[in-house]
Amino acid sequence: MKILLTNDDGIDAEGLKCLRHAVGGDVWMVAPGEEASECGHRITTRRPLKLEQRSDREWAVFGSPADCVRVAVKYLFPNVAFDWVFSGVNQGGNLGVDIYYSGTVAAVREATLLGMKSVAFSHYIKRSLPIDWSIASDRVRHMISEVSDKPIKKGEFWNVNLPHLENGAPEPMVKYCEPCKHPLPVGFKGNQSEASYTGSYQDRLRREGSDTDCCFGGDITASLIKV
Questions:
Q1: In this structure, how many other beta carbons lie within 10 angstroms of the beta carbon of residue 148?
Q2: Are 11 and 32 in contact (CB under 8 A)?
Q3: Positions in the chain whose pLDDT score sits under 50
Q4: pTM for the full model?
Q5: Residue 117 and residue 147: Cα distance in Å, rounded?
Q6: Segment 49-54 long-range contacts (CB within 8 Å, at least 24 positions apart)
Q7: pLDDT in tens, 128-159
Q8: Which domains are delineated in the chain?
């Protein structure tokens, strides 16, 4: 298979290395030259995009994740018929309404708009635990096998989230579930000249059986998203 990899944490992020390690086949990598998290589906049309070549098949684009997909497909590699576009592995969950804010998810949404099959991969983080990227890579590899065998229609993509488990915990189950629709907890503190966000991701409401509920409970979640 011909596979395009990208992310929103930047081309040197550990999560992208994890994804590359999990993926077989012919791989091309076009990712942001610097972190572009939580930028949603921003695109760049009013200024040139700086490009930096790392190898024949690896480029940094100084723009958004959606820009990376556009530049890869329409400019850098226009003659490559990509079978899949994979984005991630994001350092942090992209659950429920996160899909509207996430640059990781926006990359695969852009790929879907351009007619390609795609999957976003994210890793929920419990702040007290380090991420074991080797375990994450094994789980991503398993999920690539899982979702690539399932039917997907034009205008749909997969959003996959890995749980954050203690070392030695039983291997998580895979739950196919709907995204949670509860809003994120939002609060601010500050003064008349600045305001700092204080919402707690871990304290968000969870609809029973939703992706947030299942991933927080220790399962791998996969949600089929329609553009």
A1: 14
A2: yes
A3: none
A4: 0.95
A5: 11
A6: 51/76, 54/11, 54/29
A7: 789 999 999 999 999 999 999 899 999 999 99
A8: 2-165+220-226 (3.40.1210.10)
Residue ranges of alpha helices (H) inside the chain are: 14-22, 65-71, 98-101, 103-113, 133-148, 211-216
Paired tokens of 206: 């969870």
Measured distance CA(212)–CA(67) in Å, rounded: 28
The residue among 40, 77, 38 whose CA lies nearest residue 59 is 77
Kindly report the average pLDDT of the chain as a whole number. Answer: 95
pLDDT digits (tens, 9 = 90+) for 158-190: 999 999 998 888 999 999 999 999 999 999 999
| Axis crossing angle, helix 14-22 with helix 133-148, rounded to the nearest 10 | 50
How open is the CA angle 157-29-136, to the nearest 5 degrees? 65
Q: SS3 of 123, please? A: strand
Q: For residue 161, which amino acid is it?
A: N
